[in-house]
Amino acid sequence: MRHRKFTFKINKTSEHRESMLANMVCSLFVEQRISTIVTRAKVAKRLAEKMITLGKDALTAAKPADALSARRRAIAELGQKDVVRILFKDIAPRYADRKGGYTRIIHTGRRIGDGADMCFLELMPQGADAAPAAEGAPAAEAKEEPAKA
């Protein structure tokens, strides 16, 4: 039975799907933002957040062996040692105080050729409560209430 075995199949074999997602997450960690279709972004988001949590666990590991184990699990999942180095050195410490929600999906419309829903998958900015900023959109200004006498 497949109880609680949730996965987006995305019309790929399991080997193709796993390698594609690992490459997408590696690109996300290197570039900080990638453009893809919404279904793939949802799957990649799950993997990226698991990898960032692994990096955070390595930061707070009581024993060096635990940190090494987390690093090896990330290398096994992503397959690129240089990207895992970026993850553990730069990205995981950035989210040390954050309890989740390291990535976000920003919908951008439909693709011209086949009408697929497109989006940006990006890492959240360093500030925990940073407002989402779309490309080309003016920055939101703080509104002040008039002083009442």
Protein described:
It is a single chain. This protein has one domain (14-123): Ribosomal protein L17 (50s Ribosomal Protein L17, Chain: A), CATH 3.90.1030. The longest helix is centred in the first third of the chain and has 22 residues, at 38-59. The protein has four helices and three strands; from the N terminus they run H-E-H-H-H-E-E. A hairpin with a 6-residue loop joins strand 2 (103-110) and strand 3 (117-123). The termini are far apart. By secondary structure, it is of the alpha+beta class. 21% of the residues are buried.
Quantity of strands, as a count = 3
Which structural class is indicated by helix and strand composition? alpha+beta
**Tell me, what is the CATH class?**
Alpha Beta
CATH topology-level fold name = 50s Ribosomal Protein L17, Chain: A
Strand percentage, roughly? 5-15%
Oligomer: single chain
What is the count of structural domains?
A: 1
Percent range for helical residues?
40-55%
The sequence of SSEs as H and E is: HEHHHEE
Termini separation comes to 68 Å
Q: Give the overall average pLDDT.
A: 87
Q: Number of helical segments? A: 4
Q: What does the main sheet amount to?
A: 3 strands, antiparallel
**How big is the Rg?**
18 Å
Low-confidence stretches: 136-143
Per CATH, the superfamily is: Ribosomal protein L17
Approximate shape: globular
